[in-house]
Amino acid sequence: MTFPDPFQSRSAQALPRIAPAELKRMERFGARAQYADGAMLFEAGRDRFGLMVVIGGRIRISRYDGLGNSSLITEHGPGEFAGEMSQLSDAPTLVNGHALGAVEVLVLTTATLRTLLVAEAELGERIVRAFILRRVELMESAACGPVLLSPQHHPRMHALRGWLASNGMPHKVLQPDENAQARALCAHHAPQADDWPLVVCPDGKVQKNPTMVDLGRRLGTLPVLDSAQVWDVIVVGAGPAGLATAVYAASEGLSVLTLETRAYGGQAAASARIENYLGFPTGISGRALAGRAYVQSKKFGVEMAIPAPAARLLCDARPLEVEMCGSLQRLRARSVVVACGARYRRPQLANLARFEGKGVYYWASPLEAGLCADAEVILVGGGNSAGQAAVYLSAHASRVHMLIRRGSLVDTMSTYLIERIAATPNIVLHAHTEIVALDGNDEEGLRRVTVHDRQHGAERDYDIARVFLFIGADPNTGWLADCGVAVDDKDFILTGHAAHSTATSAEPGASLATSVPGVFAIGDVRAGSTKRVAAAVGEGAAVVAQIHNFLSRRP
After folding, report:
1. How far apart are CA 156 and CA 148, in angstroms?
2. d(CA 179, CA 111)
3. Helix-, strand-, coil-residue percentages of the chain, each rounded to 5
4. Rg of the Cα trace of the chain?
C-alpha cells in the first residue's frame, strides 16, 4: 500500500486552481485588469490588494526584503491566484509580483475577497488554506518581511523578534559583524548607541530603534482607525475569549473592532501544546489555535489593531468611548466586551527587570526554546501552563528544574500533565522552593540563579542563564478605574447577578454583563471564570447573544 506524499499534498493545497465555472462566479466580486510584459503588479511593503486571479499570461512571485535580496517562489499561470495572509488582513504585500508576458487578471479588493469567502464556502476554504500555507512558507524561509540588525545580545532584539513571531510576521536577523550587507547599511546610517536595533522594512525604509507601534503602522497590523465611526462592538483583548467574540459577532453581521496590546492569542498562545481542548485528540499548540481563530476573524471582516492598548473606558458617554494609550484618540462603540485577561505576575526580585528578555521569560515559544539548546533551565510555576512549558522545553534543554512553592502538583495541575512530567527524565521537580536572587551582567544577561528551599532553609546557586516564570497572573483591570465597573476584592470584574447587586443599571438576566450597561466581561478577567481555553471560547460565543439583546433595546 502506498501513501500520498504529504509535501506534494501541501504544495497542491498552496497552489490550487480556479475552474472556469468558478472564475465566472468570481467575476461579480472583482474587475479585470491588464499588464504589459515586465510590469510590476504589486511591490513588497507598498501595495495592497485582496486577490489576483490569472486569466491570461503568468505572474512571477518573488520573496523580497528591504535590502534588495530577491528569490523566486513560484509562477502563477491561468486559473491560479496571487495572495497570502497579508491580503486577507488588508496589509501591504510581503512579496513582489511581475508580469511574464502580457497578463490579464481578475482583481478583488480585501473587502470583496471577504465577501467572496463567505458567499462561496468551498472555494473560500481552498483560498484561505492556500493563504495560510503560503504565509507558513514565508515564515519558514525568513527571506522577506522586516530585517533586524543589531550587535549580539542587544536587549531589545528578543522583544522585537518575539512580537513579530507572535503576530505571524516573517522576518530575519542579521549581525553587522557577520554580514556584508548589514555592515554597509550600518556604515551608511551610522547608528548611535540609542539607535539599535535597526529595522529595514519591506519597502526599504530604515527605522532606528522602532517601537512596536512604529512597526505595527509600517507592517499593517495597526491600521488607522476612524474616531467618528461607531462600532457595534469593541472587543478589548484578542485572547481565546476575545477572538471567539469577534468571530461570532462578525459572522452575525455586527461591526467589530478588536484591540490587542501585544499579539493575538493572549497568554493561551504561549501554551506549547493543549491536549484537552475538544476536537484535537493529538493536541494543538496555543499559537496554532490562536492563528486559526485570527484567520477566521479576518475572514468575517473583523478589524484588528495590534498593538493597541486601551487606556480608559468612558462609560458616561453614549456611545461608549475607549481612549487609547499614548494618544488622545477615542474610539466609539455601542457595546464593549472586556476580554483583556490578566498580566503576567512578577516575583519580588530586586533586579528582575534588568534580565527580562535577557534570561527571564514569561512564555516558552520556539524562539525561547532555541536559546535553551543543551542547557539547564529553571521554570517556576505549578499550573497547567507551567506544565506544558516544562514538557516542551524538556525536548530542547538538557534539564528543566521545575520550582514550586507547594509540596506537590496535585492541586494545581491536570493529571495527564503530572504523569507526563513524572515520566520525563530530564524534568526535575523541586517542591517548597523559590528563586531569591538573580545575577548577571548587561552584556551577557542572566548568568546565575539563587534558589531557596523553604522547607529546610537552605540556598543553592545554579549557573543557569534561562529562567521561565509561570506563576499566575493578575486581572488587567486598572484601565477601568474611571468607568465604575464593579470588581471583587481581587479586582476581577463582577458580572451577572453579582454585578446586578452592586448597581441597579446592570443588565438583568445577562450573565456576562457588568454593572455598566453595554459593557460585558468574559474570560480570565471575569470573576468566577474557569481559566480554561474552552471556557473562554464558550463565554466569547455566549456573550454575542447578550450583546444582540442589549442592542435590540437601544436606539
Report:
1. 11
2. 41
3. 30, 25, 40
4. 25
- CA distances (Å), 96 to each of 59, 64, 77, in order? 10, 7, 16
CB neighbours of residue 9 within 10 Å: 10
Among 423, 442, 471, which residue terminates a domain? 471
pLDDT of residue 352: 96
Give the Cα-Cα-Cα angle 243, 244, 248 (nearest 5 degrees): 120
Closest CA to 550 of 493, 511, 503: 511
What's 343-379 look like in SS3? EECCCCCCCHHHHECCCEECCCCHHHHHHHCCCEEEE
Q: Which domain holds residue 99?
A: 6-141
Return the closest-CA partner of residue 87 out of 50, 44, 54: 50
**Across the chain, how many H-helices and E-strands are there?**
16, 29
Residue 508 pLDDT: 57
Return d(Cα 529, Cα 267) in angstroms, integer. 15
361 burial type by CB count under 10 A (0-12 exposed, 13-18 middle, 19+ buried) = buried
- pTM, 2 dp: 0.92
Say if residue 127 is in the same domain as residue 24.
Answer: yes
**Cell, residue 83:** 495572495
pLDDT at 223: 96
Question: Does one domain contain both 152 and 298?
Answer: no
What φ, ψ does residue 265 adopt, rounded to 5°?
Answer: 110, -25
Cell numbers for 426: 530530564
Crossing angle of the two packed helices 155-166 and 212-219, in degrees rounded to 10: 40
Give the integer Cα–Cα distance in Å for 496 and 529: 12
pLDDT band with cut points at 50, 70 and 90 for residue 507? low
Strands 233-236 and 336-338: parallel
- Read off the CATH number of the domain in which 123 is found: 2.60.120.10
Q: What is the domain count for the chain?
A: 4
Mean pLDDT calculated for residue range 371-380: 96
Q: Which helix (H) or strand (E) holds 249?
A: helix 240-251
Are the C-beta atoms of residues 459 and 452 closer than 8 Å to each other? Answer: yes
Angle (deg, nearest 10), helices 110-119 and 121-141: 130
- What was the pLDDT predicted at 501? 67
Exposed, middle or buried: residue 218 (CB in 10 Å: 0-12, 13-18, 19+)?
buried
| Cα–Cα dist 205/64, whole Å | 13
CA 467 to chain centre: 22
Q: Average pLDDT of 153-172?
A: 91
Instruction: Report the SS3 class of residue 401.
Output: strand
Strand pairing of 399-403 and 427-430? Answer: parallel
Query: Is 23 strand, coil or helix?
Result: helix
Greatest CA span in the chain, whole angstroms?
79
